[in-house]
Amino acid sequence: MRLIVIIPTLGRSGQVGRLLGYLGGQTRLPDEVIVSAPDASHVGLPESCPFQVSLVFGPKGLAAQRNRALVPSLGRFDIITFFDDDFVPSAEYLQQVEKAFVENDGWAVVMGTVVRDGATNAGLTWENAEAALRENEGKKHDGPPVVDHVGAYGCNMSLRSSLVGDLRFGERLVLYGWQEDIDFTSQMRSKGRVVCVTAITGVHLGIKTGRVSGERFGYSQVANAIYLIRKGSVPASFALPLMFRNIAANLAKSLRPEPYIDRRGRLRGNMLAIRHIAMGRIEPEYILKI
User: pLDDT tens, 6-21?
Assistant: First the structure.
């Protein structure tokens, strides 16, 4: 099977270069990598790569950047793997993904287990990631080897290209595109299973640069959830608990916020979105005006 890796990025040129160099150590190399960025200043390239690297440029926004690389990949590759620019896959990651799709015709989307996630804290370093992967190597995982999901975690997800068809990432989810990964992959469930294979592993560094402001992010936490429920792509049973957990966390921690999270900004964004929804205004793009 032919496999391509797509890396959307914004404002992290050094990180992209390091990831591209790191992917050269995969036991199954990608047949090509596409880096999708606003322009060349966002992309650092290593001196050499054992695979082809292509660059695509255009307006920023995670959904739009994913689509710009997705469209030319369809029909050319059997497996399309998306990595965040701060995701560090285990050395066997791509080999295991290919094996998963070859052996399971009914699988539409495959993601791996995030053994450590810097998105939940101040963030992790490459050294943290490599140590976590070494520690996890050969470890037996508790629970079932395959778990079905409503949608995939966008930091690492792979698609069976032949099942994508006309489906695209929702570009109304602008900028950071909160929940654009769940929106897209939950729609893939009509074509096959969306699964996490627990033996496929990686670490999400959770780098904080390149993210949107706290107020914009807080607005998206509410507006995007309601929009996707109304759209019908994400069930309310998934989106509403996530939305209420985020609002509760922002409210509870706004008095003593973590230094790496703008809880008060997020809470302001939450409240603004709630006010707009009460007025019948469901507009994810409004964050462009904040």
Answer: 999 999 999 999 999 9
Q: Quick one: which of 68, 79, 72 has its CA closest to 5?
A: 79
**In 3D, which of 91, 93, 86, 96 has the Cα closest to residue 128?**
86
pLDDT of residue 119: 87
CB 4 within 8 A of CB 76: yes
Closest C-alpha to 187, from 214, 217, 165, 216 = 165
Model confidence band, residue 210 (pLDDT cutoffs 50, 70, 90): low
